[in-house]
Structures are given as structure tokens and as C-alpha cells.
Write a structure and sequence with these properties.
Layout: E1 15-23, H1 25-35, H2 45-50, H3 60-75, E2 81-88, E3 101-112, E4 117-126, E5 129-140
Antiparallel strand pairs: 1-3, 2-5, 3-4, 4-5
């Protein structure tokens, strides 16, 4: 695969299509099985509350993975992401109410770099709170 977005077609400020990602308790169980991360804060409400959390929370790496989907969907090639990093600022709280939580992600081109590279800054929110800080990806465009 190669990136489907041309370097010359984007400018600083170009907005990527925003996405919303639903997260339920079932989603967390599936992720735990795939990742091998069975920490009880991600599935056991009683334990999560005992350690001071408001409820079960989504895995940080799950949240990070959902956020980068905005970039990979936009560019058309997951291999075009050459660098990605975030700071975890708030947890994504996932209530056991049949609805769960929603991670809302937007992004924009923050800088054009040499070598057909761009830096994309992402904003990830859940329940009105920013859940990822300094969320940035460097992407190689066509």
C-alpha cells in the first residue's frame, strides 16, 4: 500500500475527517484478549473503584490505537505512519450501561516537513474531557 494523499495537496491547517469510536465493556474484553492485558481496572468495576477510579476504564493503548485510525483512514496506508506518540491525560471511563463511552477524534496537519512528511496533531475527547495530550503523528504522503 502507499499513501493516497499527495503531499502537494495538503497545507498546514488541513483538517482530517473526524471520527467517533464507541467503546463498550465487550470491546474492552475483546481488546484484553487480543493484547493479553487483563488488568482488572479494564473489566472489574469493583476493583476499579477500590483503586480510586470512577469506573472501569479503557486501556490506554486501545485509546491510542483508536485515535490513530483517523490518520490511517485519511492517508489510506497504515504503513505511512512513521512516528506516533501521545500523553495519556484522562482515562476513558466505560460504564456498564449498554452504551459505554465514545472516543471522539479530530486531527489537522500542523506542519509540513521535508521528504513528503507531515505532522498531524490529533485531539481525542471522551465525555467532554481531553483523553490524549500531545497526540502527534508524522506521516509520509505520496
Amino acid at each position: 500500500m502507499t499513501a493516497s494523499i499527495a503531499y502537494g495537496a495538503v497545507e498546514v491547517g488541513t483538517e482530517l475527517p473526524a471520527r467517533s469510536f464507541p467503546v463498550t465493556r465487550a470491546t474492552l474484553v475483546q481488546y484484553a484478549g487480543a493484547s493479553g492485558d487483563f488488568n482488572p481496572i479494564h473489566w472489574n468495576e469493583k476493583f476499579a473503584r477500590e483503586v480510586g477510579l470512577p469506573d472501569v476504564i479503557a486501556h490506554g493503548m486501545f485509546t491510542m490505537a483508536e485515535a490513530i485510525r483517523v490518520v490511517t483512514d485519511w492517508v489510506g496506508d497504515p504503513g505511512a505512519v512513521v512516528e506516533y506518540g501521545v500523553r495519556f491525560t484522562k482515562p476513558v471511563v466505560v460504564p456498564n450501561d449498554g452504551t459505554g463511552a465514545l472516543i471522539e477524534v479530530s486531527g489537522k496537519v500542523a506542519a509540513k516537513l521535508d521528504g513528503n512528511l507531515v505532522r498531524v496533531d490529533l485531539t481525542a475527547m471522551s465525555d467532554g474531557k481531553k483523553v490524549l495530550g500531545m497526540s502527534r503523528a508524522v506521516v509520509r504522503l505520496a
